[in-house]
Amino acid sequence: MSTIEKKSDLHEQMVSWRHHLHQHPELSFKEEITSDYIASVLESHGIEMHRGMAVTGIIATIHGQKKGGVIGLRADMDALPLHEQNEFSHKSVHDGKMHACGHDGHSTMLLGAAVYLKENNDFSGTVHFIFQPAEEGGGGGRVMVEEGIFDKFPCQAVYGMHNFPGIAEGQFAVHDTAVMAANETLKISIIGKGGHAAMPEQCIDPVVIGAQIINALQSVVARNVAPLNSAVVSITMVDAGYASNVIPNEMNLTGSLRYFTKKVGDGVKENIKNIVNGISGSMGATATFESIPNYPATINTPKHADLCAKAAAMVVGNNNVLRSEPPTMGSEDFAFLLNASEGAYIWIGNGLVPEDSPRGGCMLHNTQYDFNDEILPIGSSYWVQLVQNILK
Ligand SMILES: [Zn+2]
Ligand SMILES: [Zn+2]
Predict the structure, then answer these.
(1) Helix (H, G, I), strand (E, B), or coil: what is residue 173?
(2) Does one domain contain both 334 and 382?
(3) Could you read off the pLDDT of 183-220 as tens digits, one per residue?
(4) 340 CA distance to ligand 2 centroid (A)?
(5) In angstroms, what is the span from residue 71 Cα to ligand 1's centroid?
(6) Structure pTM?
(7) Distance from C-alpha of 280 to C-alpha of 277, rounded to nearest angstrom
(8) CA 272 to centroid of ligand 2, rounded, Å
(9) Is residue 1 one of the residues assigned to a domain?
(10) What is the CATH number of the domain that holds 278?
(11) From ligand 1's centre to the CA of 2, what distance in Å?
(12) Which of 106, 172, 214, 312 is the most exposed place for a label (fewest CB within 10 A)?
């Protein structure tokens, strides 16, 4: 049962906060209007807070009526560099920026839970509400850990939640261990010898070598990773040449590597290195390869996943808590918080995706996406229930 009812005053307030945040999207580490707005709501409810961690981050704190444990609840605040294609009244007023990942909804659900728990603090212990900047590639979670979030605000566990289009409104998905993959950027440079396009015999053509490498890399996951393990190698940028009649000196390939375990990731990188060096060397070129880590894998602790599933079930019923959804190869900087603390990260259904729906049902990072306002009280009630269950 939802603690915060649909159509309640708090739900209506949450919708207005969410629309305000949606209208004013800001990119990673630039969430100034967003941070000020969240702070103004917290302040108007007399909730204490610490500002400025990881530039725009906010840690708000609520103490229960009795002493007890301490937990952290985290929401992300940043938007994406997309131009919104929706036409509703809360459409982005910042051209080229859009809340296309629902972080406006995440911040709102956490804010709703904070406002509710400030008035209903019949729990034992302390809750830190973490409003985190820069999830979309900036690594705000990493910066918060580097700035000592858990030294300044020690937590026995930290919890995160992301909306997921394709999972029905009123459902949650909870993974026991792996939720999201590790993400690294692959960079390959092939140095050949440029020259006249009509005299290839005088050149070492890096474009031909690069093409062989791209093809050969398709075999890494297919032939070197055990079938029940997971990895992705995608070459996504190819850069070489400047004239139709000139063989360039160099070709640069950029791509994305995803995996869940270090062992698989290390193996894939070793395979890529061997292919890059082997093909380049055999064709007379030299090559460099590096893989730059972005986000580690997001791996839940089973004990905390169970606590999350139990709280979710108390809000939406056991049948609506999916426990066997596969993880995704997407990534999430909550991983940095989970590497520094125990905890778990769950998905809340944003609604099924009808094939003909241009709105609401769209997948994340889509110019017609919108967070579903109907799930605001469900997500906030889950946060409240989690606090009441753990800090009792
Ligand atoms: Zn995103
Ligand atoms: Zn997101």
Answers:
(1) strand
(2) yes
(3) 999 999 999 999 999 999 999 999 999 999 999 999 99
(4) 20
(5) 25
(6) 0.93
(7) 5
(8) 29
(9) no
(10) 3.30.70.360
(11) 27
(12) 214
